[in-house]
Amino acid sequence: MKNIFVKEEIHAHLEQFGYYTLPLLIKEEVNKLLYLFNDTNTGKTQENKQFYLSVRECTTDKSIEISAFIKEIITPKIESLASDFTLYGGAFIKKAGNNLKNEFPLHQDFTLTKPPHSMYAIWIALQDTTIENGAMFVAPKSHKLFNNLLSSNYNNTTILRKDISEIFIKPIELKAGEAIIFSDKLFHGSYCNSTNNDRIAVTARITSKGAPFVFYQKKDDKQASVYRISPLDLIQYFNDFHQGKIPEHSILEAEIPYQHIVVNSNLLEQELRKVNNMPPLSFIEKVKRRIFS
Fold first, then answer.
1. Is residue 22 part of a domain?
2. What global pTM score does this model have?
3. Distance between CA 37 and CA 130 in Å, rounded?
4. What is the C-alpha to C-alpha distance for residues 195 and 281, in angstroms, rounded to an integer?
5. Three-state secondary-structure class, residue 255
6. Mean pLDDT score, 213-237
7. 186 — phi, psi (to 5°)?
């Protein structure tokens, strides 16, 4: 696995826990991003009233403009943390307020590169982010548990936070301008936003320079097709990829042996207990969980 982070503290924490938090942007930079967001966010659809992702709702040209602006602001910051890297994406995320049903369950992100390269998300709060207004939560060390390839063609498991023990959930509350960097293999989600205000953030991805950009398509139960795609494709054909459709111009690079592991809450908790050197759930604890969940 290639290490792109020059600070050993960041690399070590990512290796051990799958995430790292840090201050990243100053107030002026946050305000510039908020200005662009307010100019961009139309909130036209019912979906937007709950969860807005600019790359899904904006035109391709506008999404590219947003991406370029975000990367222009955050690249100098990342240059002090990493070397020989490439930034991808750059999008706004809004979780609407006054909604007690928009908690996002535990999940993993798409796998978009190949070993020995790794990919990480960079999630930056544009206002103070708390449990009450929809902060992220993560399951530390869960990036170590499975070696699944994630895409819309495979069962990208979603697990309700309440279905695993609270001891395995870490809330990530951030001040405006602070960020979390996390592995695409880390199980993560976000709380519902019960406040009167929207929770706004920006996100991008980082990987090592020259890392291949790929999409894994299910061929059958024992094989996966590996397509080389362009990062621009993921913006231009965002909805297609999320429906498991591959653009016709994509290049089939290889077909590899692969069997997907279906992860449910019981398996995730079982493996989290192992990686944290904890005993398995007792029979009584399992019964209590079924009764009170």
1. yes
2. 0.90
3. 20
4. 35
5. strand
6. 87
7. -75, 130
Alpha helices, H only, 128-264: 231-236, 238-242
| Domain membership flag for residue 254 | no
Q: How many domains does the chain have?
A: 1
Question: Using only C-alpha atoms, what is the Rg of the chain?
Answer: 19
From CA 238, how far away is CA 108, in angstroms rounded?
Answer: 17
Residues 184, 188, 191, CA angle at the centre, nearest 5°? 150
d(CA 176, CA 275): 32
Q: pLDDT tens, 96-141?
A: 888 777 789 999 998 999 888 889 999 999 999 999 999 999 999 9
**pLDDT computed for residue 46 by the predictor:** 44
Q: Give the domain CATH number at 48.
A: 2.60.120.620
Between CA 91 and CA 184 the distance in angstroms is 16
Please measure the distance between the N-terminal and C-terminal CA atoms of the chain and give it in whole angstroms: 39
Counting every residue, how long is the chain?
293
Q: Report how far residue 71's alpha carbon sits from residue 277's, in angstroms, rounded to the nearest whole number.
A: 40
8 A C-beta contact, residue 153 and residue 216:
yes
* Residue the block writes with tokens 């953030």: 201
pLDDT digits (tens, 9 = 90+) for 58-100: 888 888 899 999 999 999 999 999 999 999 889 999 998 887 7
